[in-house]
Amino acid sequence: MTVTDAAIDRIRQMIIDGTLRPGDRLPRESDLAERLGLSRSSLREAVRALSLVHVLDVRHGDGTYVSSLDPGLLADAMGFVVDLHRDDTVLHFLEVRRILEPAATAMAATTMSDADAAGLGELLDTLGPEPTVDALVACDLEFHRRIAAGSGNPVLCSLIDGLSGPLQRARIWRGLTQQEATARTLAEHRAIQEAIAGRRPEVARAWATVHIAGLEDWLRRAL
């Protein structure tokens, strides 16, 4: 473990054990470095690294604070990681999405309000029978975002959001190269929406699995 890694771990432990809480201001750099037995340069590198993943918030002229640690804020870093990976590695992220999203869809079928479930149908109605690829992808992102939010679990929602947005390039690629992709996506979205509105969680889970597995299978064969 490098000195910087050790510094990151010690700050992380202070947050875990409650010494530092969301919104707290870190002690002065010299005081904190002495308290943790670190050089000021190592502490500075640790703070910089933790600010990049939104654990710390550096406010110039004011000090360094622990962020809100909101799951959505922390998930932004995961989305950045997905963006940097090659298409073959994106398959690993799709596999994770295939595990998480059907569970969130089943939860939405029991927790989402009637109005929000109906709103999913209205969202799909805006597309028409032959939408452009860009319109379809934008609707797809919003459709899945609403379902994840409808699960009622903000951590699960943030994880799915972090995985979903950065996979947009694969969605566009599929829409441009696979002729039946648009019709299949529209049909699967409608089946998912109807299962949620009908309060059939296991049916919703099954359709979500089929939907995501289709993109995963296409990308695997395309590569």
From TrEMBL:
The keyword Transcription regulation applies. PROSITE patterns: HTH_GNTR. Coiled coil: none annotated. The keyword Glycoprotein does not apply. Residues 1-69 form the HTH gntR-type domain. One of its GO terms (molecular function) is DNA-binding transcription factor activity. InterPro entries: GntR_C (IPR011711), TF_FadR/GntR_C (IPR008920), Tscrpt_reg_HTH_GntR (IPR000524), WH-like_DNA-bd_sf (IPR036388), WH_DNA-bd_sf (IPR036390). SUPFAM superfamilies: GntR ligand-binding domain-like, Winged helix' DNA-binding domain. Keywords: DNA-binding, Transcription, Transcription regulation. PANTHER family: TRANSCRIPTIONAL REGULATOR, GNTR FAMILY, UXU OPERON TRANSCRIPTIONAL REGULATOR. This is DNA-binding FadR family transcriptional regulator. It comes from Allostreptomyces psammosilenae.
